[in-house]
From TrEMBL:
Residue stretches making up the Fibronectin type-III domain: 232-329
Record's signal peptide: 1-21
GO molecular function, one term: heparin binding
Source organism per UniProt: Grantiella picta
Gene3D superfamilies in the record: Immunoglobulins
Locations listed in the record: Secreted
Functional description taken from the UniProt entry: Secretory protein that plays a role in various cellular processes. Acts as a chemorepellent acting on gonadotropin-releasing hormone (GnRH) expressing neurons regulating their migration to the hypothalamus. Also promotes neuron migration, growth and survival as well as neurite outgrowth and is involved in the development of the olfactory system. May also act through the regulation of growth factors activity and downstream signaling. Also regulates extracellular matrix assembly and cell adhesiveness.
Single GO biological process annotation from the record: nervous system development
Keyword Repeat: yes
Coiled coil feature spans: none
Chain's gene name: Ndnf_1
Keywords in alphabetical order: Glycoprotein, Neurogenesis, Repeat, Secreted, Signal
Descriptive protein name: Protein NDNF
The keyword Translocase is assigned to this record: no
Length: 559
């Protein structure tokens, strides 16, 4: 079915305009006014191309018109028009104007004005609306024509500025621009996990016919389904994204924006767009019709759309979208504290992740013991859901608590700095044998500047009223290593982590008078002008050591 260009119908247009001019002399009627409007619409319209997808930009409340002309045919000839809204709902309609008998041609004798008015009325009566639609779905009109006719398409957006695509074809036998959808275009959800959803859909007939140039592409988002590919593109762009053409649905190596992440694995191209409403993912999966979407968030509703895409033309058709909610992640089982048992907890400071421990009291009075090994940690303790203690830990901390039998205690530990932190935790009844030795008032090591020589250093530390074992270790370090050594020191590690050459001595001492429970030690055999790291370990009845705070001392250069 051939197309006539504007100049083919030029005699008709000129004659219509002549009729309009003559009709002004006669009294104005409703039909004449309608005819004037129709002529105005045709003259302010654009020709719609045949066999090509046309992008049309619409301004709010301003109609836009396109027209095309069909030649007279002896048989009914089909044509189709497909309109794809790319954002908000629009209104569009098709009007047809069939040329009346005697146009174009010569007028018979008589009163010209009367004849022209009659023709105007007849022409106006032959302009009719054959289709209209309002919405944001992809809609196709299939028509048949055997008469010479002029068709007018009118588009209107009443919500905001937008754009649409329009495809007109009079050649319905040589194939389709858009890939075909199956009879049942629904997407089925066949599996749901905590972080995955498995989808399947019926094969498109286009895959069997043009397998190499056709592929399925999946869109995943947390907002809603999209009825067309251009609608999805528009939504993502409105969130501030700049996307490569057709959402990277061809495998061309597009340059990505900073908000995009491209993942290529197992011959799949996946692009993740970071937008304000969450992630929008696009994955092209070839001609497979089953796909498991990975790396989803638990207990989150996702919307899934599948598009069948022609890679040669970038034309696409949308399956009926679906949605699914991933399973809620089960709460991790909280480890239990047993009476007297020590648990060593390591926390990741970068994630600020907390760690929980549970303890069920078998006695009214209990003791919680915390030995901070590295970093900084905050502890929060609840009893039957009510807070009973919350503080930052430092060194060794005892927390005696009193409650009822079978009370449930929840201990939550959280790192308060970016580096990793660790702590040892123990819960026990008040009469239980203590895990750690009796501690002095301070765990600081003191050095005596006046007693320093080029070859020796004198240090002192506090003891207790209980006879205990103390071991002294030394380590030569460089000046630029001091801060790192002091920060990274594991205060829970014992002498077993030290080299044998670093051991200086071990000694026992105590004093019932705490004012005199102080001991000193002079470490000899050192090098002049050198930094040394000194550590003291206190051992109690259980054999678990407590490390004093490390001390760095420099020997004199000259003596």
């Amino acid at each position: 079915l051939k197309m006539y260009w504007f100049w083919f119908y030029l005699p008709l247009h000129l004659l219509m305009a002549t009729c309009l001019c003559h009709s002004i002399k006669a009294p104005t009627t409703g039909s004449q006014q309608s005819f004037k409007t129709d002529l105005f619409n045709f003259y302010h319209s654009l020709i719609l191309a045949d066999g090509k997808e046309t992008t049309i930009h619409l301004l709010k409340d301003i109609p836009k018109r396109y027209y095309f002309v069909l030649e007279e045919s002896r048989v009914l000839a089909p044509f189709s028009i497909t309109v794809t809204p790319c954002d908000v709902p629009i209104e569009w309609s098709i009007l047809v104007h069939k040329s009346p008998p005697g146009l174009p041609g010569k007028a018979p004798p008589g009163d010209l004005d009367t004849q022209e008015i009659s023709k105007s009325q007849k022409t106006a009566s032959m302009l009719s609306t054959i289709f209209s639609y309002k919405g944001n779905s992809v809609e196709t009109y299939m028509g048949m024509s055997s008469h010479s006719a002029l068709y007018l398409l009118e588009f209107l957006s009443t919500e905001r500025d937008t754009h649409i695509t329009v495809y007109l074809t009079t050649d319905t036998t040589s194939g389709h621009l858009y890939p075909e959808l199956p009879m049942d275009p629904r997407i089925d959800v066949i599996g749901i996990g905590h972080t995955t959803v498995t989808l399947t859909w019926k094969h498109s007939p286009s895959v069997l016919q043009h397998g190499e140039s056709i592929q399925y592409c999946l869109l995943v988002n947390e907002k809603h389904n999209y009825k067309s590919l251009c609608a999805a593109e528009t939504a993502i762009r409105s969130s501030g994204m700049k996307l490569p053409h057709t959402l990277a649905l061809s495998l061309s190596p597009y340059l990505l924006e900073p908000q995009q992440v491209m993942i290529l694995s197992n011959s799949e191209l996946s692009i993740i767009n970071k937008v304000s409403s969450g992630e929008v993912r696009q994955v092209c999966v070839g001609t497979r019709n089953t796909y498991t979407v990975p790396n989803l968030s638990p207990n989150t509703q996702y919307y899934f759309d599948v598009f069948i895409v022609n890679l040669l033309t970038n034309a696409s058709a949308a399956y009926t979208g679906t949605f699914a909610r991933t399973l809620e992640e089960p709460e991790p089982k909280v480890p239990e504290l047993k009476d007297g048992k020590v648990i060593h907890v390591v926390l990741d400071g970068k994630k600020q992740k907390s760690y929980s421990l549970q303890y069920q009291a078998r006695h009214k009075k209990i003791h919680f013991t915390f030995q901070l090994c590295q970093g900084q940690i905050r502890v929060h303790i609840t009893r039957n859901g009510k807070t009973v203690a919350s503080e930052n830990l430092s060194g060794l901390r005892y927390l005696p608590l009193k409650g009822k039998l079978l009370d449930t205690y929840l201990v939550q530990l959280r790192s308060t700095e970016e580096s990793n932190s660790s702590v040892k935790v123990q819960a026990s009844p008040h009469f239980h044998k203590p895990l750690f030795p009796l501690l002095p008032e301070s765990l600081k090591i003191k050095s005596f500047s006046k007693l320093r020589t080029c070859r020796s250093v004198t240090i002192a530390w506090l003891g207790t009223q209980e006879e205990s074992k103390y071991c002294v270790y030394r380590k030569r370090i460089e000046e630029d290593q001091i801060w790192r050594e002091l920060q990274s020191a594991d205060r829970c590690s014992g002498p077993e982590s030290r080299h044998k050459s670093e051991k200086v001595l071990c000694k026992y001492f105590y004093d019932l008078n705490l004012q005199r429970a102080v001991t000193t030690e002079t470490i000899k055999g050192l090098e002049a002008g050198t930094f040394y790291l000194f550590d003291v370990y206190l051992f109690g009845p259980s054999g678990i050591p407590v490390r004093y705070h490390s001390k760095v001392v420099k020997t004199r250069k000259k003596c």
